[in-house]
Write a structure and sequence with these properties.
This protein is an all-beta fold. 0% of the residues lie in helices and 55% in strands.
Length: 138
């Protein structure tokens, strides 16, 4: 099995730890977060990031950043993540999966924007579709 390195990102209202080492994602957004007015303060915005590659092509370095709009300064930057990370799924898994969770609480949004996640590896930048924040049309 060969896959291209990529990011999977989930934006949601809350993350809950369940029995059996499981996570539940509450209030998952698709491509849009529609708000009644701006500015607005969200009680919480959670972001789950999974960086995925083949075990035959493991990440040698990884740094994850979250950006809002066109701002060049990251809202959050992990700095270098210590690697290698043992794949928690299984020793037999053909994939290396690095999963990170972030909670922005409270989180103020002043204008329509897009929240984006970027990861920098030893040789490339990975990005995913962002979450567009916009005001509901009346």
């Amino acid at each position: 099995m060969s896959i291209t390195r990529h990011l999977e990102v989930i934006f949601c209202d809350d993350i809950r730890e369940e029995v059996g080492n499981k996570l539940s994602f509450m209030g998952v957004y698709s491509a849009d977060l529609t708000v009644p007015v701006l500015p607005i303060v969200l009680n919480k915005l959670c972001i789950v990031v999974r960086a995925i590659t083949n075990n035959s092509d493991p990440f040698e370095s990884l740094n994850v950043s979250i950006f809002q709009g066109d701002d060049s300064a990251a809202l959050i930057n992990t700095g270098p993540i210590a690697l290698p990370i043992v794949n928690s799924d299984s020793k037999e898994s053909p994939l290396q999966v690095v999963q990170l969770t972030f909670m922005l609480t409270p989180y103020q949004i002043d204008k329509e924007t897009t929240i984006k996640v970027m990861a920098t590896t030893e040789r490339e930048e990975l990005s995913s579709a962002g979450l567009r924040v916009h005001v509901a049309q009346h």
